[in-house]
Amino acid sequence: MAAGSEARDDPYAGLRQRAYLFLRERDGAVPEEELIEHVFGSSGNPALWRPLLRQVLGADDRLDLRADGYWALRGTAPVSNGLLPTDFVVIDIETTGLRPLRQRIIEVAAIRYRGGRRQDVFSTLVNPERPVPAYIRKLTGIDETALAGAPVFRRVADELTAFLGDDLLIGYNVEFDIAFLNAELKRLGRPPLINPRLDLLPLSTQLIPGMRRSGLDAACLALGLEFRERHRAEADAALTALLLARLGELARERGLTTFDGLQRAAATRVPVPKRRGPVGRGRAVLDRSHLEGIPHAPGVYLMYGARERVIYVGKAKDLRNRVSSYYSQPLGYTRKMDGLLESIERIEVVETGSELEALLLEAQFIRRYRPQYNTQMRNNEAYPYIKIDIGNPWPRVTLTRQRADDGAVYFGPFRVARSARETVDLINEVFPLRTCARSFRTARSYGSPCLRLSLGQCLGPCTGMADRDAYRQAVQDVIGFLRGERDEVMARLHQELVACAERLDFERASRLRDRIRRVQQLVLSQQLLAETEQRGTVLIVTPSPESGAREFLLVVRGRLWAQIRAAAGDTDDDVAARLARSWERAQQTTMPAVDQDSLDQVHLLGRWLRKYAGHRAIIPLDAVPNWVALVAQGRALTDDELSFDSRPAPVSEEPLPA
Asked: 256 and 107 in contact (C-beta within 8 Å)?
């Protein structure tokens, strides 16, 4: 066929020949942007021409688009620059959900690259032997019909593991893919994959400026990579290979020159703000019947999973609105939330009259059930104390999990163990107290001083020459600091922070700032604890879930001692008599110190009382109260006056009943 006839039959033949000759002149490989400029004579935005170039050259068996982003003559290997790997396998999977131990793989793809060139592909659907959730069908287009004739995983396991070999595995959120593959292998009694791996998700958040979403499509859009098919394993794997090449260019611009440096960057996780996106909603996995009978009222909701186990407890001002919000929760952003939504079998609610009661009941339920998806308040037995053993001749400051009746001074317990540890470390840096475990009750406790003595960080009681008065004064300074009565330590830290900023040591300044904040929060927490314990008996009046009723909460030394309901049919005398009996029992009881079991309740009540101090529904009790008058006063408060949503109402000028 004549050349003119060939050109008429294939209008792109000339462009392909132009690209081929240009590659021959340039030693067989050029970056895609450079080829676009040569083929189309355009120096504009390459993203506009990239789809056409790939359409034109994709049918030419003389040319390859390599994983490093270069167009090359087939058979031309890239010259390694030590940054990007040239031999690797890109993997991607699609699944029925986000939990490897509960969900299954429905598609897997792996693309092998050798010398930077695409060499071979393994791609197959996998029958999960279970239904595919609706949101997964919508997301991937893979349904039970497509999977009916697909092999189960055990049928493809040998071929897949042989294909992967010992190669470097690259993926976008590759740990997710490998976790699912290892879960499937474990079900078959096979060893897990231990291949080296490179995750492009954290690398993308590190290298792409202004990246606000963490998905593969967001990364590719930010770099101008075109894609027509998403959420299919082979298409995503090929897209991941192209993304690798672009990230390599960005890495070089950032000064990275070695693969080790690239791996270190990938190991640094940068939080990405979560945004709602078209990834499915909770309604795809939640049964609408869960909402039946849930009222628009404050209360607590309990989510049950398999075998009637409570897996999550939450509180809400409006139960109906809060539980309904889970149906609009985006799927695919956090594994924890997706795992929760997928596990819910039923939802139970307990209506309360107020948000305060809901807070207290939530904490009680979390301690009772220890739900899998609650992290706050679940492990209260691990709340630490700061201990100063003043019974020892030479006290030291330590962290302990148990409070004993040993004459020591205890602070806490504290809900944030890290803050407590940092505070103890700070005290031992600033105050010249010993950190060793010597008893100083035998002769063997003396001698052999440690390095702290020579560094001036300890007065050295082990040498027998320490001044006891100076040591005791340092102990008292520590106690004053933990009580919030001494601010010299914080002033010293702030001076060091300013010095770091002045010498442009911003990394250390940032660490100091975070440390100051955590220590301040711990000291404030101790002050709130002491303030709440020392507060006198308080009566809090709240609405009731029962129509026409009121709840009277008797708070003694920061703990809820009694809750009395004044029902519509109860007389003031009856309610007053019940309150009086509870109050009398409290006066006859020695209240124990706040411990790990009571801390959460004391903390909640302390914050509430501090926030709403002066509210007319919070009534301090002094001497012997006139209970009948107090009950009448509480029942006379309107719902608006009992609301804690707005600023506290002004305190009445009239004296409280005595």
From this structure: no
Whole-angstrom Cα distance, residue 237 to residue 602?
Answer: 53
Amino acid at 400: T
pLDDT band, residue 503 (cuts 50/70/90): confident
- Token pair in block for residue 532: 């709440």
Q: Give the containing element (helix H, strand E) for 1.
A: none
Backbone torsion region of residue 636, taken as left when φ is above 0, otherwise alpha when ψ lies between -120 and 50, otherwise beta: alpha
Question: What HEC string does 66-84 produce?
Answer: CCCCEEEECCCCCCCCCCC
In tens, the pLDDT along 384-423 reads: 999 999 888 889 999 998 888 888 899 888 888 888 888 8
Q: 146 is written with which tokens? A: 């497509």
Give the pLDDT of residue 221.
Answer: 79
361: Cβ contacts below 8 Å, ≥ 6 apart: 299, 300, 315, 350, 352
Q: Which pLDDT belongs to residue 269? A: 56
Tokens of 270: 């940068």
Nearest Cα to Cα of residue 286 among 340, 361, 231, 367: 340
For 112-127, give one letter per residue: b (16+ CB within 10 A) or e: bbeebbbeeebebbbb
Contact between 249 and 225 under an 8 Å Cβ cutoff? The reply is no
pLDDT in tens, 261-290: 777 776 765 554 444 444 567 777 788 888
Q: How far apart are CA 186 and CA 178, in angstroms?
A: 12
DSSP string, 258-327: SHHHHHHHHTS---------SS-BGGGTS-GGGGTT--SS-EEEEEE-GGG-EEEEEEESSHHHHHHHGG
| Phi, psi angles (nearest 5°) of residue 164 | -70, -35
Task: Give 346's strand partners.
Answer: 304
Assign 651 a pLDDT band (cuts: 50, 70, 90): very low
**DSSP at 413:** -
Structure confidence by residue, pLDDT tens digits, 125-158: 999 998 888 778 877 889 888 999 899 999 999 9
Q: State both tokens at 633.
A: 């006063």
Q: Are 195 and 183 in contact (CB under 8 A)?
A: no
Q: What is the pTM of this model?
A: 0.54
User: Which residues are tagged catalytic?
Assistant: 231
CA distances to 102, 443, 444, 473 from 453, rounded to whole Å, are 56, 19, 18, 18
Query: For residue 54, what pLDDT is reported?
Result: 78
Distance CA 87, CA 82 (A): 12
User: Reduced to 3 states, what is the DSSP secondary structure of residue 12?
Assistant: coil
Point out the least confidently predicted range of 264-273, 366-375, 571-580.
264-273
* N residues, the chain: 658
